[in-house]
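Worked Example 4.2. Consider the chain below.
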Amino acid sequence: MAELLLELISEEIPARMQAQAADDLERLVTEALLAEHLTFTRAQAFVTPRRLALVIDGLPLRQPDVQEERRGPRADAPDRAVEGFLRSVGLSRDQVSVRETAKGSFYFADIRRPGQPTAAVAARILPGIVRAFPWPKSMRWGHGRLRWVRPLHALLLLLDGDVVDLVLEDAAGGNGPAATAIKSGRLTYGHRFLAPGPIAVEGFADYTRKLELARVIVDQRRRRSFIDHAASHEARSEGLRVRPDPALLDEVAGLVEWPVVLMGRIDDAFMTVPREVLTTAMRAHQKYFALEDEAGHLAPRFIMVANTPGGDDSRAIVAGNERVLRARLADARYFWDQDRQRPLESRVADLSHRVFHAELGSDLDRVQRLEALSGHLAREIGADADAAGRAARLCKADLTTAMVGEFPELQGVMGRYYALHDGEAEAVATAIGEHYLPQGPGDRCPSAPLSVALALADRLDTLVGFFAIDEKPTGSKDPFALRRAALGVIRIILDNGLRLPLVPVAAFARSQYRALPPPAPNEVPDLLAFFADRLKVHLRGEGVRHDLVAAVFADGQEDDLVRLLNRVGALKGFLDTDDGANLLAAYKRASNIVRIEESRDGVTYEGSSEASLLSQREEVALHAALEGVRHRLDALLGDERFAEAMSVLSELRPSVDAFFDHVTVNCEDAALRSNRLRLLSQIRAAPRRVADFSLIEG
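Applying the procedure from the previous section yields the following structure tokens:
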């Protein structure tokens, strides 16, 4: 068994593209090898800022021989058809045979293909993978036609220690000079500055060992772990800890090949600026890690990660980074001081110059809608409607500040600080700061009543508006993040246990779009269906079956998410019992019979059966059981006692079983047959009052 080692060296790969590129390289190469009947025991991809590498172990040195039987045209087919078949299999007429089958005589070809050397297969499949590699963005350079994320410099390709000859043709276009082709070899290159020379390698173990000596840690997981531990060590030396930031850790690991972790100092003069400003400036612009003391307060220190060590114990590197950060924080402090010279209230009118959407008006128009909607929602959930309206009026004002212009990720956060500076109520300021929450699946939801009302209003206004102008998500495209907005509404409602009917709330939100034409009949149903889809996604992560959500949502009337979740839970518990599973089977049996007979007869058998036509003991018992269940379900569903309603449904099982065991539905008597089909339709209708059982799988 052999080892395949591939490395592509280029200019710096953007950190955000590295993880996906490594996954894509492993997937594309292994899929291509398997398609060529080349199996392996292990495949692993590696990525650094300058290289994309892949090692595959356990490969055979050649493909297995392939034997295939292919059937051709009939023996009496025209010569042209036979000749076409012979060309397709690469054989002559005397190399094929005629055989008898159940459908007649046909030409058959026995094709035997000897396996090719694995090196030849690799040389054949890899150029296509490289040329069509799925970078989010790629470029051409020089006079060549080859595209890569950045200019490609070198290609290492070894099989069992031997070079696999391969040329990536980078041919010239037009009449310009020819571009240099990139040829495979056994050379790699070390750190760009610390060990830039060529390095000959014999295999993967030799490759990783020699690169580490040349100051390159190939494994991105090792670089990440090293940075994490070294940063924690530096922080502990000052009695501090690193503020957790996994995403920044991933990004920084993609910026360096030989990480050097250093600590710098923040001037005390900047520590009066809000901590979110400091951490954002360090993280977004400089890729620095913030440090905290044991009490969780921001410390005047930061961690940086360099790609090379300094000759003076890295003091010059630290001083240079401190100088850059000082200039960045000086700007932030200036924005902080300048922004506070104007109250938020005075900035609201400036929102008229910001377009929210061409068809939905300005940000000022939006704020006016949010004032009304937040007040309405506050009354629904028992919060202060006037305070909610005040928070809504000010919630977008910080978009006009210099600080948010420089750091857009601080919208809302700065609004809270400026509102407190202006003397606004704490609850109003908190609502301004929290109304963008949650921003992602792992983010917390607001819980304060004003924050909840404003956060819901912000998302519902967006959803209703874009559905009104038919700008709904399609396929993977969601330019206005409506899926995220709907998930935010769902999480806020469920996390806070809000009994909030979505249909009337959406109708109120729609009424605030006075410049738009009246709503189309499908707007609210489409929005409710959209929420149903997002709820399935949300609950799938909690192990809830999507078909149960669809079954409860099916009537288009359930818009109380808390009640819906209770119904789904009761339905799941019911179906997990023997009675539930058997009643589901009986429901499907009854539905199928009624559906087939309705189609055959061209009529519907909905409605109650006539008691006078019930002739057998079993159908009389079933009729009585259905009537009893119907009356009891009304009371239980009205009181939202869903588990008890399911228990009542389970009482139908003995009567349904006896009916199917002893009653012939399609009897000779037409009136009796129709009456029994109506009785079956009642079996179909009874569970539908709880959920549409036809949508339940199994």
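The chain has 25 helices and 18 strands. Confidence is low (pLDDT under 50) at residues 171-178. Compare this with Example 4.1 before moving on.
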